[in-house]
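Reminder to self: tokens first, then the designed residues, so the page reads top to bottom the way the pipeline ran.
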């Protein structure tokens, strides 16, 4: 598989992932415990794999870990700004802060677009295609991925805890 084919496959997958992320950052969202647990596990595995791939370069690992810590702090802020409610059908909902979700999405899209713009001229020349930079071979890119990973692990874990408290408070009233 040539690098152009890899990018041709990655771009639609990333666009779909971003679309799903944007859709989940705005408005009322239903509480889906199993999906949240699956996302926590998925993000943990992705973070672990990125950390293992970053062991060959300490700067990459530092970027990833810095992003994870900043993401966890941002996830804590996001939890404080999240509201819980119950709809007319009795389904529990949460309303995430749109500014934080929007900021994370813009950061990710901006960084990926920048990396594509840097990599594309090298991919156009067949002689340089073998030396094209990898998408995750930058400490800043891994810091942004770490920011996303840390945020969503902290946020979804916190949502599960806060939802349990919300259920108990609803039962008490």
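Designed residues (173 positions):
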């Amino acid at each position: 598989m040539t690098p152009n084919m890899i990018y041709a496959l990655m771009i639609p997958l990333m666009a779909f992932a971003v679309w799903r992320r944007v859709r989940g950052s705005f408005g009322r969202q239903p509480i889906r415990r199993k999906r949240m647990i699956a996302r926590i596990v998925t993000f943990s595995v992705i973070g672990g794999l990125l950390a293992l791939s970053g062991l060959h370069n300490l700067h990459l690992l530092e970027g990833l870990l810095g992003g994870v810590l900043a993401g966890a702090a941002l996830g804590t802020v996001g939890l404080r700004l999240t509201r819980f409610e119950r709809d007319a059908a009795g389904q529990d909902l949460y309303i995430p802060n749109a500014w934080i979700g929007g900021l994370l999405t813009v950061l990710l899209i901006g960084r990926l677009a920048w990396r594509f713009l840097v990599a594309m001229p090298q991919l156009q020349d067949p002689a340089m295609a073998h030396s094209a930079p990898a998408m995750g071979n930058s400490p800043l890119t891994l810091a942004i991925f770490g920011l996303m990973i840390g945020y969503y692990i902290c946020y979804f874990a916190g949502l599960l805890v806060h939802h349990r408290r919300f259920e108990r408070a609803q039962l008490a009233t």
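Residues 38-111+139-172 form one domain.
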